[in-house]
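# step 3/5: fold
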Amino acid sequence: MSNIIYISYEFEVQPLQPATEILIAELGYAGFESFVETETGVTAYIQKEEWHENILDNIQILNSDEFEITYTYSEIEQTNWNAEWEKNFNPIVVDDICTVRAPFHEKFNTEYDIVIEPKMSFGTGHHETTHMMIQHILKADVKGKTVLDMGCGTGVLAILAELKGAKSIDAIDIDNWCYLNSLENVERNNCKQISVFEGDATLLKGKTYDVIIANINRNILLKDMQAYTASLNKGGTLLLSGFYNDDIPVIDAEVSKYNLKIDQVIERNNWVAVKYI
């Protein structure tokens, strides 16, 4: 992977929402594989071998009169990525209980200490959705339970579930880079109960879990909700994030079809993480 070359797009978006969410979804369909939301928009990455000059031709939101979106792009080498995020990656502490840090940070005196080298994967704990999902897991009883981390990114949520005593965890991501990065981080944190898989919700057929964690974008959550609920054991817990407060009604309308109800909502900068039981 070290010699893979990426094209980086820097998008400036006004107003930010819901344009950023729509832009990320459309870019994902076009072949972009990693995204970092910024204060002014989003940075998107695509492998150079998947890129072509007309890659943005079918990105409909760029033609919308409702939003002003400008961009620049440049070529980056994958080997430069670590140095870039190391300059900007600060450790985070969630509720004074859980630390998410890089290998080069000093260890914190918290109950749970997670070491993550995110590279190009999503899930350092800095984004609101990951932070809130950590909060939910910290409050949840996962000891001795089976857990699914769907859209695992760096594997941080699966790792926390193991640290809290889950007996078996499946971590799944459709992104090859996330899959490889999760494998690295699982090993780095000496986890023994986590199995990492590359793929989508079709991998869930025939499997069941006590706790399902899905921190993905709204459209994928809606598309795959039937698969999630079919894999949730009776009396189980479903934790969802990756969407905004305004999206709760449409998410809840879908989830309620499967006889689950909202138990708790955490909100952070208009992003939400919802617990269903």
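# step 4/5: annotate
The CA atoms of residues 84 and 119 lie 9 Å apart.
# step 5/5: archive (pending)
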